[in-house]
């Protein structure tokens, strides 16, 4: 079985009725790129850059160290796109300590709702600028997409965009080699999924972070064992937000990817296809099995299944019509 899955590596992910699906990898460090390629990934859909910042004693990585890391990932992928997410520091990914200073707001009651991700970046403008410079510079070596996590408010979008513009102008003025970068937003806060026209106006692409979207929609701490049984990706409200994001993105002609755990979970492959998703990003080890599901699917029949799921109060129980024998989801 492993061997057979391995042979799928060079096969394109196309449904039985001809829908082409892009399968991308999530990585944490540039050294993960070879495993991504070996799994058959067609690019990096999520480079969690915060892993360059975590588990280190001394200074945080400066522009040069980050540039080298991002460049190495871009070079390793040999011309395939690399989506670099700006740091998602805070909450479940704390820093050991800040460079030379104590991490502010260290002991907050609700770190998941606190100073994390883009909120942290905007509160640390020098760190943010250094990272954005490093990303633009890495883009001189191959296709790079920049992804911003946890965006919620229009002010955060305009403040982030202003930094990106300033950095690009700076690099231009300084004559520093850099490349064009597509800009995307993570949809992982319900407020973002409920403000799609705003996001679609400002960004080239969207990436749905289901891990946080579930956490924030259901008010369930994704890391708290005591409520793990209530963390339900099948909740109708969660599915509705995901389906809307995919549908509105398609209508606007913008790429939408899912990069949370759901993308690599074969229980959701058919449903996401039925919602119209054509870009999945996941842990490299999940790619062969998801690809196998896609190869056996009929996209147009899954649209009916997806509609039924969205109308159901018990989405898990809806029979997947397009799967031979009509298999229940879970
Ligand atoms: C997510 O929230 O689904 C996501 C991909 O980001 P992370 O798991 O790194 O928070
Ligand atoms: Mg997230």
From TrEMBL:
Keywords: Cytoplasm, Kinase, Magnesium, Metal-binding, Phosphotransferase system, Pyruvate, Sugar transport, Transferase, Transport. GO terms for biological process: phosphoenolpyruvate-dependent sugar phosphotransferase system. Its cofactor is Mg(2+). It catalyses: L-histidyl-[protein] + phosphoenolpyruvate = N(pros)-phospho-L-histidyl-[protein] + pyruvate. It is found in: Cytoplasm. Mg(2+) binds at residues 188, 212. Residues 3-297 form the PEP-utilising enzyme C-terminal domain. Phosphoenolpyruvate binds at residues 48, 85, 211-212, 222. The active site is at residue 259. GO terms for molecular function: kinase activity; metal ion binding; phosphoenolpyruvate-protein phosphotransferase activity. Its EC number is 2.7.3.9. One of its GO terms (cellular component) is cytoplasm. It comes from the Bacteria. Belongs to the PEP-utilizing enzyme family. General (non sugar-specific) component of the phosphoenolpyruvate-dependent sugar phosphotransferase system (sugar PTS). This major carbohydrate active-transport system catalyzes the phosphorylation of incoming sugar substrates concomitantly with their translocation across the cell membrane. Enzyme I transfers the phosphoryl group from phosphoenolpyruvate (PEP) to the phosphoryl carrier protein (HPr). This is Phosphoenolpyruvate-protein phosphotransferase. The chain holds residues 264 to 593 of 594 of the full protein.
